[in-house]
Amino acid sequence: MAASPAKNAVRGNGVARSCETAAQTREWMEAIASFLGGHRPLLEAHVVNFFKDRLWETVDAEWMECLRGEPVESLLMLPSGCVQDHWPSSLQEFLLTARSLVLPREQKSTQSFLPNSRVASIGTVLAQGMNTKKKHEIETLSAMVDAIARSSGAKTVIDVGSGQGYLAQALSFEYQLPVVAIDASSHHASVTNSRAERIKKHYAAKCVEKQQFKVPRTVTCHVLSSDTLAAVTLDACQDDHGQHVTKTNVPQLVLAGLHACGDLSVNMLRVFVSCEKVQGLVSVGCCYNLLSEDCYEDTDTCPGFPISKAAKSSKLFLGKSIRDLACQSAERWRNLTKEMALQNFDIHAFRAAFQMVLEKYFPEVSKLSPSIGRQGKALRRQRLRKVMESCSSMRKADDLSYSNPKEQNLNADGSLPTGPTNPKGAVGCCSSECCTGVDDSSISEVNVGSSDIHHDACYKFTLFKDFTVSGLGRVGCDLVEDVHLFEIWKDVQHFTEFIGPFWCLRAALGPLVETYILLDRLLFLQEQGSAVQASLFPLFDPAMSPRNMAVVAWKLTGDALEA
Asked: Which domain of life is it from (predicted)?
């Protein structure tokens, strides 16, 4: 094989970092662990406790005072490690050091890694159902898998966590590779099978010579351990007549996975190491928050993190909140529009203020640390953005355009009237009326100063109330009177200006945590000795696909491999 371990070298503060050897990888990880150890309060911060625990006070006061006056565009560049000359030197050092310890994420061509690779363009039939991001991922990943398979002499690809079979079908029809698609969902298997048959007819029709196109074989299985994955992998490999083959004559295999969730990506690494027939591996992980983590109490477990001996001996514990932070993308942050960023900051503020409502009026519920839920979050984000658009238009209008509170069409409980639902499911305001969603009488008792401030208070309080009503319903609590909600919002509103700087600073640590997790996986493979070659490779465009780092590995013991 012509490829060699990629030299993922970075230089920062005069120190060059590389993960070409196990020793270099360990050194890099130790530097990251040391840096993260000095910023545990920022790492462990959770949005729900922002106001309750006054989290902005855990950050250097000089930093916060500086960043509170910075434009949103500058804040969004913090996760990318971009600094301004007028910022405190300690803040600049923090961001530059973090950036220097992060793996380079710029996409590289598969040919630069494996000269024998070729990228086949996916046609409209094969790409049916894929968005632009998915098409980009499938085209690039399938080329890498094909190159690894040909170089290692592997005859079959095992697509782990295959979903609807996009990767499996690309490998089958564009690269003529036998593929076994493993997924936990029987529905996904059904979709994969029916879709593959339609694609097969298309390819057969346009083929001049009679060519036998094989559709991917599908296996439905919940892979809960590396042993399960190994057993399913060997059992799924059948000969052309459908007869199970024995372990001694199973063809050489390549494991491939596109964003295999949580421990599934790690189990792929373990099977690659333990299973003699698996000669190659191309794995792009995701969902670090779903990884199981060793608490260093039970040494017999096989957690998703850490997996390398060196990382285990360091006893660096992350926890779910920090692993969730690893999913943050510097590219996504800097590509946010100002309006989108402000909306996200507001939603953070509303969630933290909502926690204050629970603390004061529903302490028993608050102690349970309730999760409002991802579905609820998505629905609230849709609704809030719709309300924000409406309110933003109102604020640009003349003061006389604001309706009299008595003329507003409010529900009996004073909540926002639900207008017609658009095709995407977001609730919009009625086209004939201007709905603020709040009874101004609940605020009129409080002196908010000039009319501009009054309107701004109504605007933000409207959104907070809408968020709170939805959240209380989600956790099964009764509504709280508007005047009490406004008291809480009034107490925290002044500190909302710290939300943006704080969460952008915290997001700057996200790529660093992900780098540590990825280096742990690479080191696990490097610890297997010289028989295994492994590398981390930036396979996708990070702006399009933030989880773009592939763990690529192959064994040097197969007959078809070159030293």
From this structure: Eukaryota
**pTM summary value:** 0.82
Q: How many CA atoms lie within 13 A of 75 on its CB side?
A: 27
Instruction: Name residue 198's amino acid.
Output: R
Strand ranges in 266-328 using DSSP code E only, listed in sequence order: 278-286
Output the CA torsion sign for 287, 289, 295, 298.
Answer: negative
How many residues appear in the chain?
Answer: 563
Distance CA 171, CA 175 (A): 5
CB atoms within 10 A of CB 335: 11
* Three-class secondary structure of residue 302 per DSSP: coil
Q: How far apart are CA 288 and CA 262, in angstroms?
A: 6
Conformation bin of residue 123: beta by default, left when phi > 0, alpha when psi is -120 to 50 = beta
Instruction: Tell me which residues of the chain have a pLDDT lower than 70.
Output: 1-15, 208-210, 238-250, 295-301, 369-457, 557-563
Paired tokens of 14: 């005069």
Task: Please state at what angle helix 338-361 crosses helix 374-396, rounded to 10 degrees.
Answer: 120
The structure tokens listed for 520 are: 């742990």
How does DSSP classify residue 293? B
Q: Which residues contact 28 (CB under 8 A, 6 or more apart)?
A: 17, 18, 19, 101, 519
